[in-house]
Write a structure and sequence with these properties.
By secondary structure, this protein is mostly beta strands. 0% of the residues lie in helices and 41% in strands.
């Protein structure tokens, strides 16, 4: 209303003015991340009254936390914008791996300036600021993570992480051995190696052990016999598999010549009421002698 008075006033005068509120005001609500990037469709609200105060509530956006649960704005003639700023929720990446002699732990992601982060190793009873790392084999070490920041509508986030380090696989295999029939057993040995192809034993100075007193399947005839490898299955940060070997006893070459060639002495004599038969000479251990009478 822009009044214009053209009368000359010489006495007191009362003017009465009438005006209508502007109800054609609009405002925009935006939803952005901490970098200012739109993460949800903005909305425009029309037909609002000039100088009125409006209230908007943060949208629930999966994976995000708004800076405020609600915001208010007193509307002006133009440029009315309400902006909700969202942070990505903190996440925890677990660690699972095979023992490699190195330190490992969980990874906490989406931290912001102003976050206070604490860790609990007793299921949330007590918290500390140090994030512990683990090198040795551990079967599911739980870590509770608490992140607080007063600048957001949800001031506290509680998450759980797990560290799992499994044993490194090794194998002890009894070495295959060969001997000739009649000879003494050779010294039994074993070879230690990684079990899984493409892996390398950690350089931690640990030596895999096994039982040095080998036992083999009994027998001395030509053929194959099992050599048994044994020892502790769990050895520190290692899991050890034991594989058997084979002792092959090969046939010996039969010695020849005087004193070795098989000969038969017949029997010839006068009846004396005693039993008599032939004599087979130069038999060796392991010889099987058969006779035919037809």
């Amino acid at each position: 209303w822009h009044p214009t008075v053209t009368d000359t006033v010489t006495d007191s005068v009362t003017y009465v003015a009438q005006w209508s509120a502007n109800t054609n005001i609009s405002y925009i609500v935006r939803y952005v991340d901490t970098d200012g990037t739109e993460i949800h469709d903005s909305k425009t609200v029309n037909d609002q009254t000039m100088a009125s105060t409006v209230t908007e509530y943060a949208e629930s956006i999966p994976g995000y936390i708004a800076d405020k649960a609600q915001k208010q704005l007193t509307l002006g003639a133009e440029g009315n914008v309400i902006t909700f700023v969202y942070r990505a929720r903190v996440t925890v990446e677990n660690y699972t791996g095979v023992y490699d002699g190195k330190e490992h732990t969980i990874t906490v992601k989406n931290l912001l300036e102003g976050d206070t982060i604490e860790y609990s190793y007793d299921n949330g009873v007590t918290f500390e600021s140090e994030l512990r790392s683990y090198k040795d084999v551990v079967d599911g070490q739980g870590i509770v993570v608490r992140v607080t920041n007063e600048n957001y509508s949800q001031t506290e986030q509680i998450l759980n992480g797990i560290v799992t380090i499994t044993p490194f696989n090794m194998v002890v295999k009894a070495d295959n051995q060969v001997k000739i029939y009649g000879a003494a057993d050779p010294e039994f040995t074993a070879t230690v190696s990684v079990k899984d192809e493409g892996t390398v034993k950690p350089d931690d100075g640990y030596n895999i052990t096994y039982d040095g007193e080998f036992v083999r399947q009994p027998g001395e005839d030509a053929g194959s016999y099992t050599i048994f490898a044994s020892g502790n299955y769990n050895q520190g940060n290692y899991r050890v598999t034991f594989e058997n070997g084979t002792l092959e006893i090969k046939k010996a070459e039969r010695p020849t010549g005087e004193g070795f060639d098989i000969t038969v002495n017949p029997y010839e004599g006068v009846y004396d009421a005693k039993a008599h038969t032939i004599t087979v000479n130069n038999l060796l251990d392991g010889d099987q002698v058969q006779y035919s009478y037809d």
